[in-house]
UniProtKB/TrEMBL annotation:
UniProt keyword annotation of Metal-binding present: no
Pfam family, one: PWI
Alphabetical keyword list: Coiled coil, mRNA processing, mRNA splicing, Nucleus, Phosphoprotein
Compositionally biased intervals (Basic and acidic residues): 88-106, 482-497
Native species: Coptotermes formosanus (Formosan subterranean termite)
Renumbered residue ranges of the record's region Disordered: 78-106, 482-502
Name of the protein in its database record: U4/U6 small nuclear ribonucleoprotein Prp3
Top-level taxonomy: Eukaryota, Metazoa, Ecdysozoa, Arthropoda, Hexapoda
GO CC term, one of those recorded: U4/U6 x U5 tri-snRNP complex
Length: 647
């Protein structure tokens, strides 16, 4: 489409383009709609439009969207052409307009027929059609008189502009049949009656293909008819009072519409709710009119009793508060809470043995039988020797003795280096003397150029340039060898990573160091991230249990790892920045406390994870599942005592 669209066309097609873009993309995109409308305004073809939209969309999507937009534009153009054609066909001819003008100029003649009535040519055509039907009827009557039964013919006049006239002329007037009866033509009268009945039945059932009556489309306003005095009259010449439209405020228009809407709501028929599935007949409907209620008198003293009850309730609450405060001061509350932390151990009643196991070795019988006030003992089993048990090696002690490394002084390190270099030089000289290695070339540098005569002898006098090139070559060779040695010693990226991990990780086969921390509030996402991330970076294991006013952090690892993590928890993280709000409304700064640290035989947890426990019982069960419930008892008891001290 090379031709551009006008502004009016663009305004008409804009909502359709917006809907097309929204349907194509799944969401509205005003920038894409604006770009497409600009392309249509500028008269771009499909290729240019696709290139323009490709800057905002994928190339394939831009091509498909361009096709749809151009289809919309073509439909708009075709609709406009069709509307112009219909408008052109519906316009009256020039002659009709001239006739209507002449009719208005004649005062004594009938007033002009408005455009919604039929034109002069249409009336002539209707009259011609009526005359044709009369001729057909006469032919039918003549055929009946000749004793011939004519076939029923279906008349169809395809004239869209003419008004279809119902062919009632087929039926004979009622005066015709008696005249025929008087003549004695009873058979002809009967046939005419049958023919008339058939025509009427076909007309009633729509068998005759009559053209439908088209409503006349009024494209133009009704022309104004004025009389000699300048008054507005209708077709019959009566005076017409025109309604004058007066501008009004929008507020008045809204009020009028609101009133009409209320009237429509009042006129609506109330639905029968009993037929709906959600109607409950057990619930009583409130009546529109309020029923009268009788007076109800209260018994004397009723409100005094209510007041006494309220006073007693207030005194009881005050007494309970005083008792709880005294219990907090004396420590009864904290002792009760501490007693509830660790559940009571179930004591099972065991059978009392007759003889203890350590006495069974020296007793003659398995009972303490006394004869003459003495117990029967095995005298041979009792000696004057003392048995010392064999001492077992502690599981945490290393198999090999560990010696503390000794750090030498600077003077001692220099001396040791000098001795090592001397031994290496002697070994190299011995290999040269035995012929195992070639002797090294004389070392020459720019510092020795002044001594070339002494080092190289006559060669320096014969060709000094050659000697200088030789010296530079040796220097480059030594530099290259030095760099290659450094590159060989340099660690790769994987080796450096392994070295860092090796320095962080520690051997925990002989024992695992454990630290338990208690934090008042651990809801800050930044601090939670630091607690978890640093534990993973230091290769520590453990868990974090989140409970109100008592958040427990347990970490397991080596001593060096624990030292770095302890510095993070107690110094680096600023816990005081956050405040903790208590149940009584007071606020206090947050803090972290090291509850316990020590060494255990093996790890109890895996990777660092967070566990939210809404109740104290669930928190203790989580630690009990890992067989370390004592960690929770220590941390929670400290939190209870701290809360008691604050009160």
């Amino acid at each position: 489409m090379a031709s551009s669209l006008s502004k009016k066309d663009i305004e008409e097609i804009k909502p359709y383009v917006d809907k097309t873009v929204q349907k194509f993309l799944g969401f509205s995109e005003p920038s894409l709609v604006t770009a497409a409308l600009n392309c249509l305004t500028s008269g771009y073809d499909k290729r240019k439009t696709s290139n323009k939209l490709a800057s905002l969309l994928d190339e394939k999507k831009a091509t498909r969207l361009t096709e749809r937009i151009f289809e919309l534009a073509e439909e708009l153009k075709s609709a406009q052409r069709a509307s112009r054609k219909r408008h052109h066909e519906s316009e009256p001819k020039q002659e009709d307009r001239e006739v209507s003008k002449k009719a208005r100029m004649k005062p004594n003649m009938e007033p002009e027929i408005p455009e919604r009535c039929y034109g002069l040519f249409q009336i002539k055509e209707m009259m011609a059609n009526a005359q044709k039907m009369i001729e057909e009827r006469k032919r039918a009557l003549n055929a009946l008189r000749a004793d011939e039964t004519p076939p029923v013919r279906s008349f169809m006049f395809r004239n869209d502009d003419a008004v279809p006239i119902r062919p009632a002329l087929y039926g004979l007037p009622p005066t015709t049949i008696p005249s025929l009866m008087q003549r004695g033509d009873t058979d002809k009268a009967r046939k005419i009656a049958q023919l008339q009945a058939q025509i009427q039945s076909k007309l009633s059932t729509g068998m005759l293909n009559l053209p439908p009556i088209r409503p006349v489309v009024q494209d133009k306003p009704t022309p104004l008819i004025l009389d000699d005095e300048g008054r507005t009259v209708d077709i019959t010449g009566k005076e017409v009072q025109l309604t004058h439209v007066v501008p009004t405020l929008k507020a008045n228009i809204r009020a009028k519409k609101r009133e009409e809407f209320r009237q429509q709501l009042q006129e609506r028929v109330v639905e029968d709710l009993s037929e709906t599935h959600f109607f409950d007949s057990r619930i009583g409907m409130k009546s529109a009119v309020r029923n009268k209620r009788a007076l109800r008198f209260h018994e004397p003293g009723k409100f005094q009793q209510l007041a006494d009850r309220m006073r007693m309730k207030a005194q009881l609450e005050k007494l309970q508060n005083e008792i709880s405060q005294i219990a907090r001061r004396t420590g009864i509350t904290s002792a009760t809470k501490l007693a509830l932390i660790a559940p009571k151990a179930e004591h099972r009643e065991e059978e009392i043995p007759d003889v203890e196991w350590w006495d069974s070795v020296i007793l003659t019988e398995e009972s303490y039988i006394v004869e003459n006030g003495k117990t029967l003992l095995k005298e041979s089993a009792i000696t004057n020797l003392v048995e010392h048990p064999i001492q077992l090696r502690p599981p945490t002690d290393p198999l090999k003795p560990v010696y503390m490394p000794v750090f030498l002084t600077k003077k001692e390190r220099k001396k040791l280096r000098r001795q090592n270099r001397r031994e290496a030089w002697k070994e190299e000289q011995e290999k040269i003397r035995l012929g195992l290695e070639p002797p090294p070339e004389p070392k020459a540098g720019f510092s020795l150029i002044s001594n070339l005569m002494r080092v190289l002898g006559t060669e320096a006098v014969q060709d000094p340039t050659k000697i200088e090139a030789h010296v530079r070559e040796q220097m480059a060779k030594r530099q290259k060898a030095h760099e290659e040695a450094n590159a060989a010693r340099r660690l790769t990226a994987d080796q450096r990573r392994e070295k860092k991990v090796r320095k962080l990780k520690e051997d925990t086969t002989l024992g695992v160091s454990v630290s338990v921390y208690r934090v008042k509030e651990l809801s800050n996402a930044s601090k939670k991230f630091r607690v978890e991330t640093n534990a993973k970076q230091l290769f520590l294991t453990g868990c974090v249990v989140l409970f109100k006013d008592c958040n427990v952090v347990v970490v397991e690892g080596g001593t060096k790892q624990q030292k770095k993590y302890r510095r993070l928890m107690l110094n680096r993280i600023k816990w005081e920045e956050d405040t903790v709000k208590h149940s009584d409304g007071n606020e206090s700064p947050n803090k972290c406390v090291l509850v316990w640290e020590g060494t255990v035989k093996q790890r109890s947890f895996g990777d660092m994870k967070f566990k939210v426990c809404p109740t104290e019982k669930l928190a203790r069960e989580h630690f009990k599942k890992h067989s370390v419930e004592q960690y929770w008892d220590l941390a929670y008891s400290g939190a209870v005592l701290e809360a008691t001290d604050d009160v």
